[in-house]
Every structure is written in structure tokens, then in C-alpha cells.
Design brief:
The chain is mainly alpha-helical. About 80% of the residues lie in helices and about 0% in strands. The protein starts with a helix and ends with a helix.
């Protein structure tokens, strides 16, 4: 297990390098002059040239990228063009909002998606099953920002129950969490239903019922654990994406998180901030995927036995 974790951590390095090169190239090729955005269009030519030399923008593309990598390996990801402060200082001030929003939304999705998916599988072709499938298909087809605007129109503007934006109190996170969790909940319902239906038709489930096991024991002890692997994958992928920045949701609800930071930085061509935010998001997503893979071994004992057998073979 330790070798597997070390290998996965080592493989993160080329992934992060590839992400950094792609983003650096995209920011270099997109139109716009960051110096012009910093000093303004009316700045004299001498000031523009001096600022461009200060930022190192006169060097060729590959030289600038290699300089960025050299500084990044020393832990220096540069300063923001907009504020002049280290980029990770601003990310540190915003990550708390994104983590809170992501955690609440994924918890809400699990609390709703798993029970409804299990109930749909157990009561296949019933009214409950048909309604859950219909609602999940409708929610899946709706973009997150559209769901967010519908929630604002209903609960904020019409009913006046909840605030439409801001981060002043925990109440401000209710609508964003519902909007962010809607698509994940629908995916969990469909995934849980399909995997549960596949598992409960297996021979060992019929054997458990024939031995007199209660329906609750059959569903939760025998079937659910064997159906959890694809469900955990969906949870991990969506949680990693949310931690990387829920761009649309944060923009709609004016939440100063990582997603909104990336959007504002892209608009102002703040390359150091965009690079740091995207690399940070890629690292978070890779780390969550690793944790999901490790969680597999605790859910399915066959995987943990494979790790143990490989370790024994290595000693032999």
C-alpha cells in the first residue's frame, strides 16, 4: 500500500507540469496586455515598457515558462498583477469559502442521493422509482447556474426566505449548497440505483434471502457495500471538482471563493494568479482521486488482499 501511494504521489508531478504548461500557453496566447490592464490605457509608452521589463514579459515564451517553474519549485508562485501580493496569500483567504460550500453540498448530495437511489432500486418500477428517475433526469439536464437562478427567483425574490448572495452568515450558504449539490444528487441517485439493481440480482443475494436474512440486512449489509465502489467514485470526482472552484455557483451568489478568483483573474489576464489557482485545483483533484482509490480497499476487502499479496510477492 505504501509503494502504491508513493507511486501515485510521484505521478502527480507530470500531471501538474502538464497542467502548468497548458495554462501558461493559453494565458500567453489569449488577447490582451496585462501591463495595459495594470497601468491603464493612458499610461505613457516608457512606463509600459518599464513595467513589461519588470514583469519579465519581454523574454521568449519558453524562457518565461522555465523561470516560472524554477521559482515554483522554490515555493515562489509569484505575485498577483492586480494586487501585488503573493498569489497563495489571496488563495488562502478564499479557500475557506470554497471548502465550506463544497463540504456542505457533497454532504447534502450523499444524504439525499444514496437513500433515494437505494429506495428506487428496492422498489423498482414503482411510483417512487419513476418519480426519482424523472426528477434526476430533469435536474441533470439543467446547468448549475440555471438552477441557482431559479432558486434565487423562488426563495429570495418571491418568498423572501433566504438571502440571494453574500457570505455573512450560514444562511447565505443554503441556496448555493442546494444549487451545487443538485447535479451530484441526481448522479448519485442514478448511479446508486443502477449498481444496486445489478448487485441484488446476484446469486449470493438470493442465497442470503434463502438463509432467512432480513431484507434490511440483505440491502444494507450484503448489497450496498458491494455497490458502493462506483458511487464513491462519483462522490470523489464531484467533491474534487467542487474544491477546485465552483465557478458558476460562486459567480451567481457572489461568493469570494476560488472559482470567482479564477474568473476575475482570467478577465484581467493575471497570469500568476490563474496559474496558482489552476495548479492548486489540479493538486486538490488529484489528491481526492488518490483518497478515493485508498477508500476502495476499505470498502472492498478483495482490493486490500491484492495489495497484501503484492507485498508478499515482493518479499519472496
Amino acid at each position: 500500500m505504501g509503494k502504491y501511494v508513493f507511486r501515485r504521489l510521484f505521478l502527480m508531478i507530470p500531471v501538474l507540469l502538464g497542467v502548468s504548461f497548458i495554462i501558461f500557453a493559453i494565458m500567453n496566447m489569449t488577447p490582451g496586455d496585462p501591463v495595459m490592464m495594470i497601468l491603464g490605457e493612458g499610461a505613457p509608452a516608457g512606463a509600459l515598457a518599464a513595467k513589461r521589463e519588470e514583469l519579465g514579459l519581454n523574454a521568449p515564451f519558453f524562457i518565461r515558462y522555465l523561470r516560472y517553474l524554477a521559482d515554483a519549485f522554490r515555493g515562489d508562485f509569484g505575485n498577483s498583477y492586480r494586487t501585488g501580493i503573493p498569489v497563495f496569500s489571496e488563495i488562502h483567504t478564499r479557500i475557506g469559502y470554497t471548502v465550506l460550500l463544497s463540504s456542505v453540498s457533497i454532504t447534502l448530495a450523499v444524504l439525499l442521493g444514496l437513500p433515494i437511489g437505494i429506495l428506487s432500486a428496492v422498489k423498482q418500477y414503482s411510483i417512487t422509482d419513476q418519480m426519482s428517475i424523472g426528477v434526476s433526469l430533469i435536474v441533470t439536464s439543467m446547468p448549475g447556474f440555471f438552477t441557482a437562478m431559479l432558486l434565487i427567483l423562488l426563495f429570495s425574490l418571491k418568498l423572501r426566505w433566504l438571502p440571494p448572495m453574500g457570505v455573512n452568515t450560514w444562511v447565505n450558504f443554503i441556496l448555493p449548497s442546494i444549487a451545487l449539490s443538485s447535479a451530484t444528487t441526481a448522479s448519485l441517485i442514478r448511479m446508486t440505483r443502477s449498481t444496486m439493481l445489478e448487485v441484488i440480482r446476484q446469486d449470493y443475494i438470493r442465497t442470503a434471502r434463502a438463509k432467512g436474512a432480513t431484507e434490511r440486512s440483505v440491502v444494507f449489509h450484503h448489497a450496498l457495500r458491494n455497490a458502493l465502489l462506483p458511487v464513491v467514485t462519483v462522490i470523489g470526482v464531484n467533491f474534487g471538482q467542487a474544491l477546485g472552484g465552483s465557478i458558476a455557483i460562486e459567480q451567481v451568489f457572489a461568493i469570494p471563493g476560488i472559482g470567482q478568483l479564477m474568473i476575475n483573474s482570467i478577465r484581467q489576464k493575471d497570469t500568476p494568479m490563474v496559474m496558482a489557482a489552476v495548479i492548486f485545483s489540479a493538486f486538490i483533484a488529484s489528491s481526492v482521486n488518490l483518497l478515493v482509490d485508498l477508500l476502495y480497499s476499505f470498502i472492498d476487502p478483495r482490493l486490500s488482499s491484492q495489495y497484501a499479496s503484492k507485498k508478499r510477492k515482493g518479499k519472496v
